[in-house]
Design the sequence.
């Protein structure tokens, strides 16, 4: 997918909502969980109910890998269903991968070529050679973890460090997550980079925007984690919109009854209407 297609879709829908597909058998309606096809059936009904209100879907790999081969089959069916039925929706493999170059190449092949996701989340800490294999894939996006939504983000990502600007002898104090953005913006194919920034980190979104003014930001953490959509919009929007805001549990498990898909649609619509006010 091209970035212009994503932006066009966002403007048409007046939504930059990403629905996180994190299927958890313990939270799903009981009438589905007896079926061997439960995960895909759940996802399909969620997708059919929410697609009008969102522009992206983000299956998190943990929720599939936890079920072995059946989980992998459910993931394959889900991405095929999305690509065939709703091809305008941007798809994110939330895999948080990254390894030495030849290994990352295999991850890129698996997620971006074979499964044909539009993008993948990648951990940046092994550096340029671990990210390059993802960035080399045409028409696909690498979503680098910058500042995550969890408590532990402060353990490393918010640590201060000294950074020297190119062609200068002066040092400046910046956070490790800022250095990740600053350095990665100099890499080849940086136009294929997006960044993860938690909705719980609103005081830092402005600084992310300053370092990567044109990049799309994937912002998880509204809903169940308590992040504020209006604060995210205030600091994160750019002239191309530049935001994908994710909600998973808040949409998927709005009801545990037979009306789960309608309840999910209502939650997605609520977020979409809030988003429309900012567009
Ligand atoms: O990369 C992510 O998507 C991610 C990064 C982050 O900083 N925080 C975060 O919550 N996520 C993911 O976003 C989703 C959030 O789910 P809910 O809290 O249920 O909306 C989960 O799949 C998380 O793994």
Sequence:
């Amino acid at each position: 997918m091209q970035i212009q297609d994503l932006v066009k879709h966002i403007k048409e829908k007046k939504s930059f909502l990403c629905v996180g597909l994190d299927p958890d058998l313990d939270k799903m309606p009981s009438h589905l969980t007896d079926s061997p096809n439960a995960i895909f059936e759940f996802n399909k009904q969620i997708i059919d109910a929410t697609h009008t209100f969102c522009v992206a879907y983000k299956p998190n790999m943990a929720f599939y890998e936890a079920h072995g081969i059946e989980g992998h089959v459910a993931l394959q069916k889900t991405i095929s269903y999305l690509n065939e039925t709703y091809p305008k929706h941007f798809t994110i493999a939330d895999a948080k991968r990254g390894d030495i170059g030849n290994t990352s190449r295999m991850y890129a092949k698996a997620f971006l070529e074979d499964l044909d996701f539009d993008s993948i989340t990648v951990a940046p800490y092994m550096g340029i050679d671990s990210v390059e294999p993802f960035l080399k894939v045409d028409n696909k996006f690498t979503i680098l973890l910058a500042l995550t939504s969890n408590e532990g983000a402060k353990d490393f990502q918010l640590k201060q460090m000294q950074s020297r600007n190119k062609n200068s002898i002066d040092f400046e104090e910046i956070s490790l997550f800022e250095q990740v953005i600053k350095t990665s913006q100099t890499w080849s194919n940086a136009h294929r980079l997006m960044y993860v920034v938690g909705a719980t980190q609103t005081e830092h979104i402005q600084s992310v925007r300053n370092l990567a003014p044109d990049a799309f930001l994937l912002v998880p953490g509204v809903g169940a984690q308590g992040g504020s959509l209006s604060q995210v919009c205030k600091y994160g929007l750019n002239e191309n919109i530049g935001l994908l805001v994710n909600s998973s549990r808040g949409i998927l498990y709005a009801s545990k009854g037979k009306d789960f898909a309608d309840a999910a649609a209502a939650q997605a619509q609520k977020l979409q209407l809030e988003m429309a006010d900012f567009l």
